[in-house]
Design brief:
five-stranded antiparallel β-sheet, single chain, seven-stranded mixed β-sheet, alpha+beta, 19% helix
Length: 576
């Protein structure tokens, strides 16, 4: 997830997020992805050692090599690297590191296999070895998130050797691996810039252009890869954009040439180039110091010649500051956690839970309904970042037995506490509640957001190293929109993010106003504006069956929301 941030849209796990830069736009994002931009990530370097390996050689010790795979949900394996062969050792400490991209929003399962390489193959390059010709000593699995959330980012895992299928014994222990993770960050220095342009050429017939900037770099293959973007400024030929942050680690060095392109936004995604400049961070700093703008250029074809036309349009740098920004993994390493909460819609519009057409119907075949699927997939990711795995779980919009309609009741039926044990505890409490409450209405979010905010507030006051994530799953449009806005504005100063999943076929256009991705901050009844965007909304139908899962859609912004809170409060990672 790199070290550049587009201001609160696709977030950089290793990057920075400016609290006033919300630049997410679906059409712009689609445009960037078509040019090779597929979200941001951070590279992790894995160091591997082993102990107590089984000795499979007769006259000497084993000659082990480790092979590392990623494992898909369907069980498919993809090899990502091999260590060198260490001769004659049952306690190898491999020198070669394995590089893998860490994505917060994904469950990344790793499989480690250790082989004893036969003597006749000792002169063969590791990547050329045929694994079926080597002897498997053992294998072990873990999640990448388990490694990065461990103290010192070191995780021990047992190696086991599967026995013959005819054997009824358990797999045999074959030693232990120790996996250590380091973040591949060249530099944590981040540059914050404010760009503006003057006298842009107008590309519109009946209005002015809607300009935005895309900052890219060239890679060794010669391709141009976008690394961040600004928001779209509507109807303006002299735009000033909100601050963006670019990490030295993302671009390589301050001398690396950057291509800054100015486009006129079009809803159909066919954005028209207005002009561009090519400057390094060093040169952009000089433009800032001099106060002089740089003329944009645009490619033109004259016959068979490709030339550049210099425009009167100019690019200015109104701000250029450098600072050291800690990464998301820095905070995890110093003990910060993410605590999962869930609130489930029990309004009558979901339908009778006992009938198959209900959104709450629990299929006896074991196939999860939309509510269960959202809980399982989001919880599967977030549970690794919560050490005690005790989750607050609420329902809303239902009438408990012999009681009035409640817009925030404990899912476990308790009158005193709302926590359940693990993701399965949420699932059990949900299934039980379906038969212990009467579905009612209306759909109100305010009470559950206020309850989550109260817990986050108490944690902040106690100086706990916790950040809370509330998942709200609903089938309908809320009826307390302004009250919900008020609750979210109040919560924007707290260590809290709110994820909303819309299930069913309702029209959720009004709901999208809660999500600050469009660049507009929420405003309360009193006129107070949210200090940061803490909401991510996804209609479940928009991502079902597509290339991106509902989990990735919901969770991709969480690291930048986490970092924006820490930086707004000037909370720095530390070790005990």
């Amino acid at each position: 997830m790199g070290n550049c941030c587009d201001g609160g849209g696709q977030s950089a796990i290793g990057g920075s997020s400016h609290p006033n830069a919300n630049a997410h736009n679906d059409a712009v994002d689609g445009f960037l992805k078509s040019r090779g931009y597929h979200g941001l990530y951070t590279e992790i370097e894995l160091s591997i050692s082993a102990s107590n390996l089984r000795d499979r050689d007769v006259l000497s010790k084993s000659d082990p090599m480790a092979v590392i795979y990623t494992k898909g949900r369907d069980g498919s394996l993809q090899e990502i690297g091999r260590t060198e062969v260490v001769l004659n050792s049952l306690t190898p400490q491999w020198i070669k590191k394995i590089i893998i991209n860490y994505h917060f929003e994904m469950v990344q399962t790793l499989l480690f296999r250790v082989y004893d390489v036969d003597t006749q193959f000792h002169g063969v390059e590791e990547k050329m070895l045929k694994l079926e010709e080597q002897q498997l000593l053992g294998e072990g699995t873990c999640l990448l998130s388990e490694i990065v959330t461990r103290k010192n980012r070191t995780l021990p895992i047992d190696l086991v050797k599967k026995l013959e299928p005819s054997s009824s014994n358990h797999p045999m222990k074959s030693g232990q691996l120790s996996i250590h993770a380091e973040e591949c960050v060249v530099s944590k220095t981040t540059t914050e810039l404010v760009f503006r342009c003057m006298d842009l050429e107008n590309k519109e017939r009946f209005s002015k252009s809607d300009p935005f900037l895309v900052i890219s770099k060239s890679v060794e293959s010669g391709h141009v890869v976008p690394i961040c973007k600004t928001e779209v400024v509507q109807n303006d030929l002299n735009p000033m954009w909100k601050p963006i942050s670019i990490s030295i680690s993302q671009v390589g060095s301050k001398e690396t040439p950057l291509i800054i392109e100015c486009f006129d936004f079009n809803n159909n995604g066919r954005h028209e180039l207005i002009g561009k400049v090519e400057k390094s961070l060093v040169e952009l700093e000089n433009i800032y110091s001099s106060g002089q703008g740089e003329c944009l250029i645009v490619p033109v074809n004259i016959g068979k010649d490709h030339q550049m036309r210099v425009l009167k349009s100019r690019l200015f740098v109104d701000k250029f500051t450098e600072s050291v920004h800690h990464t998301f993994l820095d905070y995890l390493d110093s003990g910060f956690e993410m605590n999962f909460m869930v609130a489930i819609d029990f309004t009558a519009s979901n339908g009778n839970p006992r009938l198959p057409d209900s959104l709450h119907y629990i299929d006896h075949s074991g196939r999860p309904n939309a509510y269960q699927k959202a809980i399982l997939e989001v919880g599967e990711v977030l549970q690794c970042y919560d050490s005690d795995k005790k989750f607050h779980a609420w329902g809303f919009g239902a009438r408990p037995i012999d009681g009035p309609v409640s817009h925030c009741f404990n899912l476990n039926g308790s009158s005193g506490h709302s926590e359940v044990e693990g993701i399965q505890g949420i699932m059990n409490a949900y299934a039980s509640a379906l038969f212990n409450v009467t579905l009612a209405g209306p759909t109100l979010f305010g009470p559950v957001i206020t309850s989550a905010a109260m817990i986050a507030s108490h944690s902040l006051a106690a100086n706990e190293r916790k950040y809370f994530v509330l998942l709200i799953i609903t089938d309908g449009v809320i009826t307390d929109l302004q009250e919900t806005k008020d609750a979210l504005v109040n919560a924007s100063d707290l260590p809290l993010s709110v994820l909303i999943v819309g299930v069913g076929g309702a029209d959720y256009k009004e709901m999208e106003v809660l999500d600050g991705d469009k660049g507009e901050r929420l405003e309360s009844t009193t006129g107070r504006v949210a200090t940061r965007d803490i909401v991510q909304f996804v209609p479940f139908r928009d991502v079902q069956g597509g290339e991106i899962s509902v989990v990735q859609s919901l969770l991709e912004e969480l690291p930048s929301q986490f970092l924006s809170f820490m930086r707004n409060r000037d909370i720095k990672p530390y070790t005990t």
